[in-house]
Amino acid sequence: MTIQVTPITPHIGGRMTGIDVTAPLTQEQVKAVDVGMDKYAVLVLPGQAISDEQQIAFTRNFGPLQNGANATVKRPELRLDPAFADVSNIGKDGLKLARDDRRRMASLGNRLWHSDASFRVIPARYSILSGRIVVSEGGNTEFADMRAAYDALDARTKEEVENLITEHSQIFSREQLGFTEYLPDERAMMKPVRHRLVRTHPTSGRKSLFLSAHIGGIVGWPRPEAMSFIRDLMEHATQPQFVYSHKWTQHDLVIWDNRATMHRVRRYDDMNMVRDLRRTTTKSDGPTAEQEAA
Ligand code: OGA
Ligand code: MN
Questions:
Q1: Which residues of 141-163 are buried (b: 16+ CB within 10 A; e: fewer)?
Q2: Which of the four, 5, 6, 48, 210, has the lowest number of CB atoms within 10 Å?
Q3: Considering the entire predicted model, what is its pTM?
């Protein structure tokens, strides 16, 4: 089988065929995925009916795994192996989460534009999302190209953002949705981390805006000024010409590079439809900025 990639939009997204991700990959296949990722930042691999074990094995080809389990969900309540981010709307019993379920409140954060694990000192490299049960209406995942968005900034703004450091926490993203109820130990776990606002991709060499709903401030700036600037940059970066909206077909495997993109899920009728998507994630190379002493 020869691997082929067809571009989906002028900036971002490629459809990759000729690879079976349920089988062990050759070095050449791993390389082809990495090369495709550097170019397209999002790859869609259709028709990949994959098991959890196979998804974990596939993910390991692209670096150390990042724990995906939500910090606010206790281990015995997890439906999936803790390597997974469970982005479904069902619980361990297979039933849809109630409207006021805390896990549902937390996952509603995925409706805001974000970069995965940007609230961690070492944020995510690839996210690999498998469509096990998809919905017929709504529930698209949208991706915005943070490289193209950076490139399109005017020279003055590029200079202004170049060395800015932002603070990220899940508390900030959930606060935007009015979710503020945490136990003291949860708050401690969600202590803000620092990241550069502009980063250079280690292999493509392209600069990108490191934006995310988890941002709650810019170091040295008054908070309202920081947040209004971040909001302007978000608006800029998510204009239609930078975005690919993925409509899911069952067994799609979608891979994105969190170092080059933001993403969000669109609303769907999660009270009446089951959507079971399972994400594995790899870690990026290291911190993007020095951290404040603990
Ligand atoms: C994720 C995520 C979006 C979706 O898996 O990181 O944000 O479409 N999910 O469920
Ligand atoms: Mn996400």
A1: bbbbbbbbbbebbeeeeeeebee
A2: 6
A3: 0.97
CA distances from residue 150 to 77, 153, 154, 159, 208 in whole angstroms, order as listed: 40, 5, 9, 11, 5
- For residue 114, give the ligand 1 atom closest to its CA: 7
The domain limits of the chain are 4-283
Residue ranges around ligand 1 (CB below 6 Å): 85, 87, 110, 116, 127, 129, 141, 263, 265, 277, 279
The alpha carbon of 216 and the centre of ligand 2 are apart by a number of angstroms equal to 17
Using one digit for the tens of pLDDT, what is the confidence trace for 40-93?
A: 999 999 999 999 999 999 999 999 999 988 777 788 889 999 999 999 999 999
Ligand lying closest to the C-alpha of residue 267 = 1
CATH class of 4-283: alpha beta
Q: Could you identify the atom of ligand 1 that is nearest to the CA of residue 266?
A: 8
